[in-house]
Amino acid sequence: MSMPTEINRRTMLTGLGFAAAFTAVGVSLPTAEAVALPPIRDTFQGLLAFLVPGGDRFSRHQGVTSETTGGVDALAAPALEYTYDQAIPYPLVGRPFDLNLPGAAAVAAILNITASAVNPGSNFGPFAAAFANLKYAEKAEVLRRLERPGLADGTPVRFLINTIPTLAAFAVYSEAPVFDRTTHQLTRRPVGWDLSGYAGVSDGWAEFQGYYRGVDRVTD
Q1: Is residue 151 part of a domain?
Q2: CB-based contacts of 169: which residues, under 8 Å, 6+ apart?
Q3: Which PROSITE patterns does the UniProt record give (predicted)?
């Protein structure tokens, strides 16, 4: 079974890609100054519920749910946090958010700062993260603002912002949430397989056995 190797390879390439990009444009080194961390897990749960709604409490609060298993119940948040922390181990500092945070914390800060601007009331709610307290349309507005041309252009923050919806959706539909990095095995069937209708690993398909219309050789 080659899938565990592929997961490792994808994770490695993602990390190397981030690292190369940040090195090229400049990333600050860690400082001794203590920085308060934003509510990372609730922020990512709110993001996953937005991208792949389910029946979980984050999806219910945003006002958009689904009868299928969503990103929150797919357990994609830890995998997403791990990817960002591995890819961006050093704090990002710079406009327009004045960040001094690495990895997943930087992403959570960006989403929550923008969420507070979209709806100041989002700082109060059932969840620790302002972004998770937003309604569905307000979350869409957060991402729209982050995609504005000119926002943080030419900085590592711009590159990071561009990864947020794509990488989060990939985490849901990939095997990463149930991949054991110690044993290199899946702990259970990935939710993404069911959402996409993927039958799982196979050595071949019956439809491709034999020859097409009796043709068993090709001559020049």
Answers
A1: yes
A2: 51, 52, 71
A3: TAT
Q: pLDDT per residue over 148-171, tens digit each?
A: 999 888 888 888 999 999 999 999
User: How many domains would you assign to the chain?
Assistant: 1
Q: Does residue 184 sit within a domain?
A: yes
Backbone angles phi, psi at 22, to 5 degrees: -70, -35
- Provide the residue range defining the domain that includes 187: 3-214
- Chain-centroid distance, C-alpha 141: 18
Coarse DSSP helix, strand, coil percentages of the chain, rounded to the nearest 5 percent: 55, 5, 40
Summarize pLDDT for 166-209 with one digit per residue, the tens.
Answer: 999 999 999 999 999 899 999 999 999 999 998 887 776 666 56
Q: How far is CA 132 from CA 46, 66, 90, in A?
A: 4, 17, 25
